Amino acid sequence: EVRRRMPDAMLWIVGEGDDEARLRSLASDRGVGGAVRFHGRVSDAELGDLYQRASVFAMPSRREGFGLVYAEAMWHGLPCIGSTLDAAGQVIVDGETGCLVPYADPRATGDAVASLLANPVRARAFGEAGRRRAREHFGYERFRRDLLAALDLA
């Protein structure tokens, strides 16, 4: 769906997992194999570079816990797309820092990705709001304060 609306769009998959062979096959079967790049495990410097070069971060998962990776993407100023089925909503503010989509709904996910790619002003606004949210809610000082309060040491 995204490639139909945005023919130059590329999907980057970073990290390792036991689903890579299936995903490669799926991309090939759908005729978009050339538009999907599997980066595998990368160094922190490479990851930072990929975040800087990316336009949108999407991970509409069904089992993501807190969603640290969303906060990480937000620190890099990326609008985020996550699932309504997992904990993405604890990090992403729908319509402000990104989009929450129903899990296993490729049309909704495609629409969200394509919409942000087609509207870079909106994507930047979401990314900047996400960066602010990451600083305010997921930075070291906030973590330290909350941890000390939880330990009753504040």
Short structural summary:
It is built from 7 helices and 5 strands, in the order αβαβαβαββααα. The N and C termini lie far apart (about 50 Å).
Textual characterization of the structure:
The protein is of the alpha/beta class and 154 residues long. It contains seven helices and five strands; from the N terminus they run H-E-H-E-H-E-H-E-E-H-H-H. The protein has helices spanning 2-5, 20-29, 44-53, 68-75, 106-118, 120-138, 140-150; strands at 11-14, 36-40, 57-59, 80-83, 98-101. The strands form two sheets. A three-stranded parallel β-sheet has the order 3-4-5, sandwiched between helices. The chain has a two-stranded parallel sheet with strand order 1-2. Strand 3 (57-59), helix 4 (68-75) and strand 4 form a beta-alpha-beta unit. Helix 4 (68-75) crosses helix 6. It is globular. The model has no long low-confidence stretch (mean pLDDT 93).
Major sheet, described briefly?
A: 3 strands, parallel
CA radius of gyration is: 16 Å
Poorly predicted residue ranges: none
Please count the helical segments: 7
Distance between the termini: 50 Å
User: Can you give the helix content as a percent range?
Assistant: 40-55%
Global mean pLDDT: 93
Set down the secondary structure blueprint:
Layout: H1 2-5, E1 11-14, H2 20-29, E2 36-40, H3 44-53, E3 57-59, H4 68-75, E4 80-83, E5 98-101, H5 106-118, H6 120-138, H7 140-150
Parallel strand pairs: 1-2, 3-4, 4-5
Helix pairs in contact: 4-6
Features:
3-stranded parallel beta sheet; single chain; 154 residues; 7 helices
